Amino acid sequence: MPKYDFDLACRALEHYAQKFEEFENDDMIKLGNSFLKQDLVDNSKKTRELVAKIKDVQTINTIHDNQKLIDVAFTVYLEDLEKSKESLMSSLQERKITEYSLNNINSEISTAKDYIPEK
Predict the structure, then answer these.
(1) Is pTM, for the whole model, over 0.70?
(2) Helix H segments across the chain?
(3) What residues contact 50, with CB distance under 8 A and at least 6 apart?
(4) Domain residue ranges in the chain
């Protein structure tokens, strides 16, 4: 694994927390009980608190103690980046737009791939 990129870890974790927050407005969750909604809130809060710790302290202990959560966040982040890129490329192709550059997202995908744990 390359030298740890704390900014990338924070972006992946923030993205992961947002996933939980999006579910809070889901119709099925609204119909469910308060325990289910609280679980989503708790998971989002835990992830956002980890981001704050990383930004504040940026220690290897914080990373080590939360490695599983970070690994999952990186995996979800990478998959969503790739889906977004594919969707955009498909939309551009449908509109006959063939000359474009995706340097920023390609760079982010490339960097994020370095942090995906091998199975």
Answers:
(1) no
(2) 6-23, 27-31, 34-56, 60-65, 67-94, 103-113
(3) 13, 62, 66, 69, 70
(4) 6-113
- Cβ partners under 8 Å of residue 85, min gap 6: 102, 105, 106, 109
Give, in order, the Cα–Cα distances in Å from 88 to each of 20, 37, 97, 104, 106: 24, 32, 11, 13, 13
Confirm if 14 and 51 have CB atoms less than 8 A apart.
yes
Tokens of 44: 């989002």
Using CA atoms, how far apart are residues 115 and 93, in angstroms rounded to an integer?
A: 31
pLDDT digits (tens, 9 = 90+) for 20-57: 888 777 776 766 667 777 888 898 999 999 998 888 76
Residues 12 and 70: beta-carbon distance below 8 Å? yes
User: In the numeric block, which tokens belong to residue 17?
Assistant: 């927390």
